[in-house]
Design goal:
about 325 residues; 13 helices; 2 domains; three-stranded antiparallel beta sheet; about 45% helix; alpha/beta; TIM Barrel; binds flavin mononucleotide; EC 1.13.12.-
Length: about 325
């Protein structure tokens, strides 16, 4: 008997798929989800995921090797589909026999899912709608993550609660669906598990764990913030393919507006392609997030955070966070 039998039973399919004790993924967070946090999550019975972000294949290679040195437990790698070297990054994952790869940031390009599966990896994709979820499963995705707009980082337009109601009853019976976005406590986990989710993914709740290398200033900003401080970015030019980003409001939020105007001007005056415009915007975010997470520039950098940030109040070891989530979930299920 485990301490949380009801939660474990509802997470069984997800945990078997991940090869972890609990079906709790720590969603990849660029600059934050590196060897230390990822190995700590997996060692604590969750499932850590390396954020490849804008890394080169050589950097990813080193990060996977360093993570392996810190944990014998399985972990995944998150690749951004618009990365110009996506197929080289897939080859790096294949060399290391990475067991699970999460494809994020858009519909996977032709051949990417196939290449990963050929290498023996399980492929997890983000499903922004029910129709796309079905399509991704038909194209070979082994599991889906549905992520609502409460989440930190790049977001879609629909809330987690609505996505869960639209997608879980249709797909979660026969497929593996993880729910993400806005989860700060175990009671919410219990709710999504009861609706059919096989597990959950959290980012914001883990970003300030003791094992996270995020700068103390970044962590302090999280501890001070409440849900309403985590705002979605505003699109200033409808032509720009800007994916909204949820982050704590600061001077960097205004700088992003200026960046968009600069890119829009380059579209008009220099005739840069739309793909290049999107890449410039994404590079901006990667740089701004690095400034906040690594350098501690919490004024000018990007403090990507979800609305659950109000429930992040202190630095805690990953094991404590996972135990708290599990016992809150279990208590909720016992009360039913
Ligand atoms: C600081 C930060 C950086 C993130 N970077 C990425 C990323 O590089 N790739 C990705 O797929 N998701 C990224 N995310 C999203 C997380 O993986 C996760 O899905 C999300 O945080 C879950 O919602 P929550 O923040 O409400 O828990 C990021 C989130 C945060 C807070």
């Amino acid at each position: 008997m485990t301490a949380t039998p009801r939660t474990d039973a509802l997470m069984r399919r997800g945990a078997e798929f991940l090869g972890s004790r609990h079906a709790i993924l720590c969603g990849a967070m660029s600059w934050v989800s590196e060897r230390n946090l990822v190995s700590a999550i997996s060692n604590a019975g969750g499932f850590g995921v390396i954020a490849c972000g804008a890394m080169t294949p050589a950097l990813l290679d080193a990060e996977i090797a360093a993570t392996r040195a810190l944990t014998e437990k399985p972990f995944g790698v998150n690749l951004i589909t618009m990365h110009p070297d996506l197929f080289a990054l897939i080859a790096t994952c294949a060399t290391h026999k990475v067991s699970h790869v999460v494809l994020a940031g858009g519909i996977p390009p032709k051949g990417s899912v196939e290449a990963l599966k050929e290498a023996g990896a399980k492929v997890i994709c983000f499903a922004p709608t029910l129709a796309l979820g079905k399509k991704l499963l038909r194209s070979g995705a082994d599991a889906l993550v549905i992520e609502g707009m409460e989440a930190g980082g790049h977001i879609g337009p629909v809330s987690t609660s609505v996505l869960a109601q639209e997608i879980l009853p249709e797909l979660a019976g026969d497929n593996l669906v993880f729910v993400a976005g806005g989860i700060g406590r175990g009671e919410a986990i219990a709710g999504y598990l009861e609706m059919g989710a096989c597990g959950v993914q959290l980012g914001t709740r883990f970003a300030c764990a003791s094992e996270s290398i995020a700068h103390p200033n970044f962590k302090k900003a999280f501890f001070r913030a409440s849900a309403r401080d985590a705002v979605a970015s505003v699109q200033v030019d409808p032509r720009l393919p800007v994916i909204p980003v949820r982050a704590l409001r600061n001077k960097g939020t205004e700088a992003f507006t200026a960046k968009q105007l600069e890119v829009a001007r380059a579209l008009d005056e220099e005739g840069i392609a739309m793909g290049e415009a999107q890449l410039q915007i994404e590079h901006y975010w990667a740089g701004a997030l690095r400034r906040a997470v690594i350098d501690g520039d919490v004024e000018g950098g990007s403090l990507m955070a979800g609305q659950s940030v109000g429930m992040v109040n202190e630095e805690e070891p990953v094991t404590d966070i996972i135990s708290a989530l599990l016992s809150q979930s279990e208590a909720a299920l016992v009360r039913r």
